[in-house]
Amino acid sequence: MNHLELRAEKKKKQPKFIRQDFHKKRLKKRWVKPRGLHSKVRMKRAGHPKKVADGYGSPKDVRGLSKEGLNIIRVHNEKGLEGIDKEKDGVIISNNVGLKNKLLLLKKIKELGIKVLNLDADDYIKKKEEEIKKRLEKKSKKKVEKKKKEEEKKEKKDKLEEKLTEEEIKDKNKQEKDKLLTKREV
Predict the structure, then answer these.
(1) Phi and psi dihedrals of 93, rounded to 5?
(2) Which residues pair with 140 in a beta bridge?
(3) Is the whole model's pTM more than 0.70, yes or no?
(4) The 89-93 sheet, strands edge to edge
(5) How many alpha carbons lie under 13 Å from residue 132 in its C-beta half-sphere?
(6) DSSP label of 89
(7) pLDDT at residue 186 greater than cutoff 60
(8) Treating both helix axes as pointing N-terminal to C-terminal, what angle do 99-112 and 121-163 enclose, rounded to 10 degrees?
(9) Could you please report the per-residue DSSP string of 144-181?
(10) Which residues pair with 65 in a beta bridge?
(11) What is the pLDDT of residues 24-80, one digit of tens each?
(12) Alpha-carbon dihedral angle through residues 126, 132, 137, 138, given to the nearest 10 degrees
């Protein structure tokens, strides 16, 4: 039996290690070593949650490897791709990499033939590029609508000015000049 298969079998049999008395208080289920003098979990009493022990570990050969048996390497940028062996290593793209850089990284990884462990590269690239196209189309539509509204406002303003007689226009200009001249300077 292969070590990877053995690890998978052990994982199936392995109990869920939960914190003692997590249900009584507002505690998380994550494992915390029991330290109480009368702790039934510490004393490994029957009917109580199992305690973390050496025997539950995976074989040394496959510790820290992915399900496919590849070394896991976290990548933040293109420099992280240097020195990666595509037969032995798999890549996880860090969570705090932005969308544009993630797409560039995925394309570079695809060229090099490296396996991405935390997502399906082809589907992700297609999906995100479509989203970007939709965003750009939406943005361009908004710009066009904004220009149309501005043009309509100008047309309305022009129509109003045409209706005004010459004397009214002179009065309006005079009022604007008066406003500018009578403004207080602080």
Answers:
(1) -80, 130
(2) none
(3) no
(4) 71-75, 89-93, 115-116
(5) 9
(6) E
(7) no
(8) 140
(9) HHHHHHHHHHHHHHHHHHHHS-HHHHHHHHHHHHHHHH
(10) 71
(11) 988 999 999 999 999 999 999 999 999 999 989 988 999 989 988 999 999 999 999
(12) 130
For 40, the enclosing helix (H) or strand (E) is none
Distance CA 53, CA 57 (A): 8
What stretch of H or E contains 74? strand 71-75
Which of 120, 74, 127 has the alpha carbon at shortest distance from 97?
74
- Among 87, 90, 54, 86, residue whose Cα is nearest residue 75: 90
The pLDDT tens digits of the residues spanning 130-181 come to 999 999 999 999 999 999 999 888 888 777 767 667 777 788 888 888 887 7
Distances in Å between the Cα of 127 and the Cα atoms of 19, 120, 121 are 40, 11, 10
CB 75 within 8 A of CB 94: yes
- Residues 6 or more apart in contact with residue 96 via CB below 8 angstroms: 76
d(CA 36, CA 40): 9
Tokens 């000015």 sit at which residue? 161
Structure tokens that stand for 180 in this block? 């500018």
What does the chain come to in residues?
A: 186
Question: Could you report the per-residue pLDDT of 35-50, keeping only the tens digit for each?
Answer: 999 999 999 999 999 9
Q: Which two tokens stand for residue 161?
A: 């000015």
